[in-house]
Write a structure and sequence with these properties.
This protein is mainly beta. It is built from 5 helices and 25 strands. α3 packs parallel to α4.
Length: 409
């Protein structure tokens, strides 16, 4: 059954001009990347090198991830040390997120680890372990692409732990779908969700409600040359500020100065009214102009134009926050997230080779996880059309839910 997009949704995209959040938006992952850059800088000094390339392999065995791109953060952090991240260099830094929660734990935690590699594929120096650990359920959901509810949507006699909620979502491998699989939500309460529109029709995005799918990830089929729209769904009784990522980029990435905030930064959020929907049709180019989301070959994509890594290609994620004006109080259930304690680290052992100073080859073991590869199509720039954007000032709460889907396996 194909769902017809009969609901008229105006192309008024409301932007949160000021975050003004009660909670910091810079997270554990960003701190860990900064720590990686600090350690890599020390190794580059030892090797008398000022340039390096990098590769990020994502979270565990799940392809990709969709939070702030590692490459973008790593480039900025290296620049603070006077080092340059480039596509080709004598040395490369290969990084990944690995599971570190001990057996039997009811929560998930990860650690960013990496290794400096020379042009022959040999390891340079010891493996780099970066701190802090990533234990925030919101960041884990964003990195893995597993849709998850991060606050309680109804009273519970045992309370609500967002870390345990994410662990259950990660282990369950279940997509919470509705409307015959044309909408997906963070959980069975169907408060925070997303749909995909191609032409006049909703594209199937999930299996029937409660069905398990491979990897526990929602998937929709988008073909090369198709333009698509992302429909944000807020069925709650409060406003939501929603951060959207397409291939790891916010829709505002290519915007000009007409929508830049007073602090000089580009917006991060779309504000959606209670019990309503809003469509994000493409890349915002200016206050009154956008370019439709278009499935293109990777070489013609937005990530290639932006000059960022392809680590996040093929996934769309939405992070939902409650938001409110300065004159009003936050929603009654606005929570504080309590993070679990840092667990013991675990790795998988592999065999590597490196050249000794005397020219002979040494075989040694190292503990690392599986590597991943990126896909061959991505989202690029489609038809340009007019839009109407206006900024509003909101306070932003903690992440309430993450909803994600892949369009390219």
């Amino acid at each position: 059954m194909t769902a017809f997009c009969s609901r008229f949704i105006v192309l008024l995209l409301v932007l949160a001009i000021f975050g003004n959040s009660m909670h910091g938006l810079a997270g554990e992952f960003e701190d860990a990347v900064a720590n990686a850059a600090l350690q890599v800088n020390g190794l580059l000094k030892e090797q008398n090198e000022s340039r390096i390339s990098a590769k990020f392999q994502g979270f565990g065995n799940l392809p990709g991830g969709n939070e702030v791109g590692f490459i973008e953060l790593f480039r900025n952090a290296l620049a603070e040390h006077g080092k340059v991240l480039t596509k080709r260099a004598n040395l490369s830094f290969e990084a990944r997120l690995v599971r570190t929660d001990p057996e039997g734990s009811d929560v998930i935690s990860t650690e960013l680890i990496g290794q400096l590699i020379d042009q022959r594929g040999n390891s340079v120096g010891n493996r780099i372990q970066c701190y802090p650990s990533i234990t925030s359920p919101a960041e884990l959901a964003q990195q893995s692409g597993v849709s998850s509810q991060l606050i309680a949507t109804k009273p519970s006699p045992n309370g609500f732990d967002p870390a345990q909620s994410f662990r259950r979502a990660y282990d369950a491998q279940t997509v919470h779908a509705a409307n015959d699989g044309h909408e997906i939500y963070s959980n069975e309460d169907c408060l925070f969700g997303v749909a995909v529109v191609v032409g006049k029709y909703y594209r199937r995005i999930g299996e029937p409600a409660g069905s398990a799918v491979p990897e526990g990830l929602a998937y929709t089929s988008l073909q090369l040359g198709e333009e698509y729209t992302i429909e944000l769904i807020n069925n709650s009784n409060h406003e939501c500020a929603i951060e959207v990522k397409v291939d790891g980029l916010r829709p505002f990435h290519f915007a000009d100065d007409s929508i830049v905030k007073p602090d000089g930064e580009k917006p991060k959020f779309f504000v959606v009214a209670p019990r309503s929907r809003q469509q994000v049709r493409g890349w915002v180019l200016a206050k009154e102009r956008l370019s439709r989301f278009l499935v293109t070959p990777l070489q013609e994509s937005a990530v290639m134009r932006a000059g960022v890594s392809t680590e996040n290609v093929g996934m769309v994620s939405l992070t939902f926050h409650a938001c409110w004006t300065a004159e009003n109080a936050p929603p009654a259930n606005e929570p504080l997230i309590v993070l679990p304690s840092r667990p013991k680290i675990q790795y998988r052992t592999v065999e590597r080779k490196r050249r000794r100073d005397d020219g002979t080859i040494e075989t040694y073991t190292e503990q690392i996880p599986e590597m991943q590869t990126s896909s061959g199509t991505a989202t690029g720039f489609g038809t340009e059309e007019s839009t109407d954007l206006r900024g509003v000032t909101r306070k932003i709460g903690v992440p309430r839910a993450v909803v994600a889907f892949r369009y390219n396996r």
